Amino acid sequence: MKRKASFYLELLPGTLDMLVLKTLSRQPSHGYAIAQHIQRVSDDALKIGEGSLYPALQRLLLNGWVEAEWGTSETNRRARFYRITPAGRRQLSTEAKNFDFLIGAIARVMETT
Amino acid sequence: MKLWNRLRAWVLASRLERDLAEEIDAHRRMLEDEFLRQGLSPVAARLAAARRFGNRSASLERSREYWRVRWIDSIAQDLRFALRLIRRQPFLTLAAVVTIALGVGANTAVTSVLQTALLNPLGLRDADTVVVAGVSIEKLHFRNVETSAVEFREIAAMRDTFSAAASMEGRWWTWEDKGEAMRLVGRAVTPDFFRVFNERPALGRFFTADDRQSLVLSYALWHSRFGGDISAIGRSVMLDGKPYRIVGVAPEHFRVPANAEAWTPLDLSGPAYQRRGYNMQETVVARLKPGVSFAQATGRVNRYVAGLLGSNAGRDIGYEGYGYSIGLRSFGEYVAGDLRRPLLLVWIAALLVLLTGCANVAGLLLARSAGRKREIAIRFSLGASGLRVVRQLLVESAVLGALGGAAGILVAAVGIALAHNALTIPGGRLLALVALDGRLIAYALGVALITALLFGLAPAVQLLRHDQATGMARSRRRFQNLFVMAEVAAASMLLVVTVLLLRSLWAVEQVRPGFNPAHLTTAFLIKPQNDPGFLDRLAGTLRSSPGVESAAIAYPLPFTTGGLTSGFMIRNRGQKAGEPEWHGEAYLVSAGYLKTMGIRLLRGRDLADSDSSAAPTVCLIDDRLVQTFFPAQDPIGQEIWMYKGWARIVGVVSAVRGTALEGVARPVVYYSLAQLPVFPSAAVVVRSSVAAVPIIRQAVRQVNARAPIFDVQTMEERIEQSLGIRRVVVDLLGAFALITVLLSAIGLHSVVAQVVGERTPEIGIRMALGARPAQVLAQFLLQGLRAGIVGLVIGLAATAYAQKWLASLLYEIRPFDLATFCLASLGLLALLTFAVWWPARRASRIDPQVALRYE
Questions:
Q1: What's phi and psi for B689, nearest 5 deg?
Q2: E-assigned strands of B612-701?
Q3: Those residues with Cβ within 8 angstroms of residue B110's Cβ, 6 or more apart along the chain or in another chain
């Protein structure tokens, strides 16, 4: 079941964490909404496998970058809402910077043929 | 943060798992909702969602990985295994836990006392560099006694050595409050007193040099009398009929001395305070200057005294050849006083109990590890590393240690409660401050765990060295013999010391006080103001009370603190060379004192009511004074000068012991109380056939209710108190000795029993080949006793070595007392023989047929 997205994420480790943090930095969301958001905003280019989303969320929880709380979704289902913490915001900005640097570096390599 | 979250996750794993599962299901249902909205049938939607989502349990498993802390998991596994083992062997567990609990409990209780008494005296926060100065005069048997004001001024002037110095004098006051008279205990102190201890007032201020009739309350008194009301500051109270203004409240932890309720300023400018050796009632406390060591300060004071004695001024005070010196003690030493050495002894004893217990449990575990050979071999063959198996064993002993430590805290709590009941011993007030705080509980658990590691190490090390379980038995036996030796050594040490102390106690108890303490009740009171005939009327009322045989008034009393010690002169007789110094105790007594106390009149007449303040001063002297100073002469009619000019000797009485049954007893001079009414307090002594305490209280209330009574006790109680510390030490050491002796016997027994068990087939063969039962018995007896005897010899040698240190605790018994050593050794040996004889006899009764079939 290899999809484009998961292949992509394996190539750049930590990218999924960054994407989730970025999504949560707008507003607290539950897992389904996070997956939906990333898929919609990336024009379906990034499909998050639930098999990797939840382990990623557990990792973020353990690192203290997000907090979780049970609530009710828009469709009236019980869902667990994740909220980014100040430490999470700091982590996001670090990762974003690293990512820019990496993309820049890759771009330069690709340009100089 | 990360580790914390991980630990939390590990602890909460089941809840997290539930959350995650629920969350994933919610996610799936949302997917289903989505597919339904796109027009799929419910069944198709569910299938699509499931396909889209992928493997649910794989997702769970991957998340779970994050919660795990590997090493904790495996230790938890060890723990579970250890708990299972412990449950499976309840007797072994109980034996180990009780042994550790006794050792740890005894140790913690004694350490808590030690901490309050020695390490952190009176709970003061900053008393490490506070010293107490005292005068010693060798020839007068004065050792670190209170000083006169002169020494205080000299110490205070040593600005290069002490940053602050103060003097305190004991005081008690009658506090009259709303018609009720209360006795207040405290100290009069010079202005720098609180600065010496680096204390700030809890409220108000401390004294300045200008304070005269000011009062600082203890925190406890402020709460009990004023309910902790801030407006107490500035209030005026009446002490001894004089107004004092409350200026401050001392901090809650400040109790110098332990029973102080209040402090007043001390004025040392009067004429009574200008001569060395006079009015020796000052306790001098001083704080060492930063950077000045205790030894430097002592050197400084010694040089000063040497210079003083060498100078003309020194010769004038007449102290040359008397062995006069000023000594410094740490504040802790001052507080604990005579308690110091007994406490250290008890502490060492408690440590020996702990070590014996440790050796015993180690022996038990070793014996058990022999039975686990098979289990451990299986573990090894399944690929467990040596370290892993050792860790398993250490976790097991740590669990035992933790259980023992917890039980030990209970034992310590009981021990401390008992210590609170021992308030009657001198310095007992100190024990009231002893408490089991968090630090001590941590100490107890720490000791228990260290012990656990120690005794767990023996089987573990042995295992590591013999992975393949070969040669294990021999190495184990070596360990076990070592443990037994250590146990027997500790037991014999404690036994010998206990017997020595017990015999000392008996010897002291044999000493006659010189009077008849039975049926005597005593109480102190403060004479009320403006009531000159009070004491006479009180004595009369007491004598006419039913059940009272006789009654008298005196100050002071034997076996109380605060005797009147003084030098004296005899008219027409100079001091001869080589004669002991002229120094004695004075008692001011009413008529009837001799009869009440049961002191025999040997010659002359008793003091009588006619010896009033108008009559010429007379006195009685005791036998001891006669023997020393009037060996060939009739003392009656001679004159002696001690307290009030020349007094004519009218009688000779039998000698009494002044303060304790042991120690130096000084000659005694008895004055008529009516002729020397100088002291504000007095004591009543009542000989009665009924309980006298209510009679005394009733009589005082009837005669003058404004006289506070305190320190009501029978004379037998007072004598008992002077023995108190001896008795407590003997009791504790006796208990400790009993524990170690039993432990060592049990240890030896179990080793021999195990050897017999293991060698049953071999013994069977030898019996079959014709060995006689007696031979087998003798062989095992000797083999078993060998380790015990070696331990005994080591223990006796160690005790003999420590004898010198013990000498000060003994009385009329030589430190190396052969009888005691023999008695203790034989007793211990007899018990050990019995412990070995039991399994040895079993060996001698082995039936060869049964033994061989057993194989």
A1: -95, -10
A2: 618-622, 639-641, 646-653, 668-672, 681-688
A3: B343, B346, B347, B350, B415
In this complex, do B53 and A30 lie within 8 Å of one another by their Cβ atoms? no
Could you give the ipTM of this predicted complex?
Answer: 0.80
Within B295-348, strands assigned E span 324-330
State whether B66 and A64 contact (CB < 8 Å). no
Whether omega before A28 lies within 30 degrees of 0, making that bond cis, reads no
- pTM of structure: 0.66
Kindly state whether A86 is in contact with chain B, defined as any CB-CB distance less than 8 angstroms. Answer: no
B330 bridge partner residues: B131
User: Distance between alpha carbon B823 and the CA centroid of its chain, in Å?
Assistant: 29
Single out the residue of B480, B250, B211, B483 nearest to residue B369, CA to CA.
Answer: B480
Note which residues in 44-83 of chain A have CB less than 8 A from chain B. 49-52, 54-55, 57-59, 61-64, 68, 70, 73, 75, 77-80
Radius of gyration (C-alpha) of chain B in whole angstroms: 37
User: Would you call B616 helix, strand, or coil by DSSP?
Assistant: coil
Number of other residues whose CB lies within 10 A of the CB of residue B533: 10
Give dist(CA B599, CA B612) in Å, integer. Answer: 22
DSSP for A12-32, written as a single string? STTHHHHHHHHHHHHS-EEHH
Q: What is the pLDDT of residue B272?
A: 81
| Statement: residue A23 has pLDDT above 70 | yes
B670 has which bridge partners? Answer: B587, B620
For residue A3, pLDDT over 60 is answered with: no
Sign of CA dihedral B765, B768, B769, B772: positive
Q: Which residues lie below 8 Å from residue B697, measured CB to CB, with a gap of 6+?
A: B709, B712
A39 touches chain B (CB under 8 A): no
Which residues have a Cβ under 8 Å from the Cβ of B409 and sit 6 or more positions away? Answer: B104, B105, B108, B436, B441, B444, B445
**Residues in chain A closer than 8 A to B22 (CB atoms):** 78, 80
The topology under which CATH files domain A4-111 is Arc Repressor Mutant, subunit A (1.10.10)
The pair of structure tokens assigned to B392 is 């398993």
Q: In this structure, what DSSP letter does residue B147 have?
A: B
Return the closest-CA partner of residue B386 out of B334, B301, B300, B460: B460
At which residue do the structure tokens 């970058």 appear? A65
Nearest Cα neighbor of B591 from B550, B621, B624 is B550
Among the residues of B176-265, which ranges form H helices? 193-196, 219-226
Task: Give the residue among B637, B635, B559, B543 at the shortest CA–CA distance from B592.
Answer: B543
The alpha-carbon gap from A81 to the nearest alpha carbon of chain B, in Å, equals 10
The residues of chain B scoring below 50 in pLDDT are 469
Residue with tokens 């009559």: B615
So where are chain A's domains?
Answer: 4-111
**Are the beta carbons of B331 and B455 closer than 8 angstroms?**
no
